[in-house]
Amino acid sequence: MNRSFIFTLSLLIFLPLVSGCMLLVAGGAGAGSVAYIKGDLNANLEASLNRSVAATNRAVRSLRYAKISEATDAYSSHIIARTASDKKIDIMLKKATERTTHISIRVGMFGDEDISNAILSEINKRL
User: Fold this and answer.
1) How far is CA 79 from the centre of its chain?
2) According to the model, what pLDDT value does residue 23 have?
3) Is the pLDDT of residue 121 over 60?
4) Inter-axis angle of helices 113-125 and 49-62, to 10 degrees?
5) What Pfam families does this protein map onto (predicted)?
């Protein structure tokens, strides 16, 4: 058999095993509820959008990630950074109320729970 057939067959066998929903729910001080679902870490920050964006930028700098871009308006912010190993970090912040911001963090294509939690922890330290 040729290699591409074996590779395709392997993907077909193993892909259903990794496509399930991965969920972790925990309580965090200053973060409200935290959920890790399908590669995204979602949390509610007890801070305004502006404070949350500023804390996120400070956390990205503190962790020495390379900030690639930032787009912010009155209701949301999208920050993209890269790790030293060139994993993409995608951070979305959305205004929930005047004093609450929803944050979603995804690291890499499939998510990295440890790095996502480290980023959220650094953000919470700076709020």
Assistant:
1) 10
2) 41
3) yes
4) 120
5) DUF3568
What is the residue extent of each domain of the chain?
21-125
Rounded distance, CA 61 to CA 87, Å? 16
Q: What is the pLDDT of residues 64-106, one digit of tens each?
A: 999 999 999 999 999 999 999 999 999 999 999 999 999 999 9
Q: Is the dihedral of CA 78, 34, 89, 62 positive or negative?
A: positive
Residue (of 62, 39, 38, 37) closest to 124 by Cα position: 62
From the list 61, 4, 55, the residue with the least C-alpha distance to 31 is 55
Question: What single string gives the DSSP state of each residue in 68-97?
Answer: EEEEE-SSEEEEEEE-TT--EEEEEEEEEE
User: Which one-letter DSSP state was computed for residue 110?
Assistant: T
Q: How many whole angstroms separate alpha carbon 88 and alpha carbon 116?
A: 11
Coil vs helix vs strand at 40: strand
